Amino acid sequence: MLMQPAETMSGSRFYSCLKEYLRPYWHVLALAAISMVATAASAPMLAALAVPALDGVLAGQDVETMQLVLLAIMVLSAARGMSGFIAAYSTAWLANKLMQDLRGEIFDKLLTLRASYYAFRGGGNPVSKVVTDIDQLVSSFTNVATVMVRDSFIVVSLLAWMVYLNWKLSLLAVLMVSVIVLIGQLISDRLKRAATEAYEAADHVTGILKESIENYAAVKLYAGEQYQAARMREEADKVHDSLMRRAAAEALAISFAQVAAGIAAVIVFYIATRQVFAGETTAGGFASFALAILMLIPAARRIAGLDEFLRSGLAAATRIFSLLDEKAEPDSGTIRMERARGQLKFEHLTFRPLSVPKEPDSQPSHGSSWRHIPEPGGPLEDIQLTIQPGEQVALIGLSASSKSTLAELILRFIDPTSGRILLDDHDIAHLTLASLRGNIALVSEKTTIFSDTVAANIAYGEMGRATEGRIMAAAQAAHTMEFIRHMPLGLQTVVGERGIQLSASQKLRISIARALLKDAPILIFDEAAEPSADQESLHHVLAALRTVMHGRTTLVIARCLSTVEKADRVVMLHQGRITEVVRRELLATKGAYTRLESYLG
Questions:
Q1: Contact 319, 9 (CB under 8 A)
Q2: What is d(CA 360, CA 377) in angstroms, rounded to the nearest whole number?
Q3: DSSP 8-state symbol, 453
């Protein structure tokens, strides 16, 4: 699967995609919009109250008008507060619901993708899509929606009121506000560039620090302390310079805003007072006009900064929806096999990894360079082998990259370049993935342990319906009860992330118990590179292995002579090709033993 750099999606497609997720909650969206409009409508009303407050109350000393104005301000403030609360709450509810739905859909999608998707991208990118990118997208959406509805209505309604009061002064005020916002936007762009430079420089400092700590042995061995320290000081100077440029831009923005606002206020005040003196307007009208300008400027600034929210939202949306557009793992098989006999045939099986482009960690852009990585799995050449039901076959001589290739081919995580694999004379490509994988159990050195209870780790997935008695029996047969009985809650003890509370031997035995509970007719065992730390643990592991292998077609990726000696046949490979097959009765011969030792290193 060759991936191409994705172009940033357009704003129209962005909102078209979001519309489908918001459709079930249209009533909440409508409530939020109505509340925002109500909040915005209160702005010109508050400004309008300045006219009777000054002209009627202060100038005319009208007590009755004063009471009505104060009552109107109280009612308007209460309504503004209530509508603001409803708008904020409904928007937050909508954002959280959107976040929940997107996370659920992305997680569901991740579970359906091919194994190659993760191999090409690594583990961090999908996680960032579920967490960081969705937060960024939803935050951008709520900010853009709020600004477009509330602030746009505030600007339009305040401008209408200002034009109604004094159209000449309104044109002058709009011109000055536009100039202030434009220059402020230019300074804001400089701030963004400075912030990006500071972030990149700080990232380099972190990289040097991490590199120095992780490679401390090489640093000390080759006397690289001064070199690393010099690199750190150089990058630290860059961080300082970037931060100072950012600080200067921020200080300039604040100073400019203060000066520009002062100049604008002086000009408007001068012209307005001349109009008051000439009788063209009243003091209340001038105060209402000034109050409208003060409320107009923040809303105009937020509208001017809308592009920043939109850009970040589009960048996150591009990454999220490109994942949702990924094709799920194909399941073209039509044959459903209940329980297989366990015969495996490899007919001219060949696998040659391809070079595929790897998606860069940062957001792809036009002209960005993409580095190539090999397709997962090591090479296999023209493998011809038949494993009979219940037979135990050990493979030795596989390279580090090839050791799991056969297992992944059997499980159809990857597809062969040529040739085929047969299960009970059925091409596995014609079997449904569920029935194929349902007939295979995997015990690997990379034992998968979830942050859950011991019982849940043994009875994982579809086996979660197993009774406690069956789980206990599998645990007993896998020699896990020797350590489970010492746990505070026994089988209900939570083992922590990646089974941090368990030793390697204990994790392996839980994996064996899982395989026993599944009771699949085929077992693939990828033997650990290192034996258990102590003889007692090794004894329990070997005993558990003998139990789980009994009566099952077993394919062992062997590392130790003790495992090879128990196999019915040993298949020796060199550079992905079968060079020799030795039966159990010949393993004890000196020549065969010597060759085994050479293959096992």
A1: no
A2: 21
A3: B
